[in-house]
Amino acid sequence: MGASPRLGVGPTALTSLLIGASLAGMAEPGSAQWVTLAAWTAIMAGAVQWILGALRSGWLVNLVTSPVLNGFTQAAGILILLSQLPDLLGLRSSWSALLSDPSWHHFDPWALLFGAGGLCGLLLLKRFAPRLPAAVLVVAICGAISAVVGFAEHDGHIVGHLPAGLPSLAVPSSISIV
Fold first, then answer.
1. How far is CA 113 from CA 1, 14, 35, 64, 69, in A?
2. Average confidence score pLDDT of the chain
3. What is the pLDDT of residue 51?
4. Distance in angstroms (rounded) separating the CA atoms of residues 156 and 56
5. Which residues, 6+ apart, have CB-to-CB distance to 52 below 8 Å?
6. CA 92, CA 72: separation in Å to the nearest integer?
7. 107-144 pLDDT, tens digit each
8. For the chain, how big is the Rg over CA atoms in Å?
């Protein structure tokens, strides 16, 4: 959908994708253990990057060719799109259940309406008002509509409560330092 001066989708998103995939089997995503593991992964990656910088080893990056980096970036985009597609479509069940028994009962009509409406809003704002922050406006409008129609009260999946603060720094129980 093009570049946006308000959204940063680059190495940070790819790093998050890699860390999320790496920690998937080690802890429940979003749990305190998972957050601790993610924090330690970030600390270790930063330490490795700092050491490579101190040793003037930046030339190692040149060993990874541009087509490999482009392929990685595009594949990450496809993975992110495919992981978000069920929520965008309001799919309540799995893809296999939908393929074995294709019917509308697999979809949440409100979620499908929010997903399709949000996507249409993004496309229309990009086309007719490219200077406006389309993503921010669409999120705000969909959030307001969600509150007005009571989407959460009708079993709609929303973000919900976000914990405040940062977890305490501790060595994860799955890592033994001896």
1. 20, 29, 33, 43, 36
2. 81
3. 93
4. 51
5. 58, 60
6. 30
7. 888 888 988 999 999 999 999 999 999 999 999 999 89
8. 20
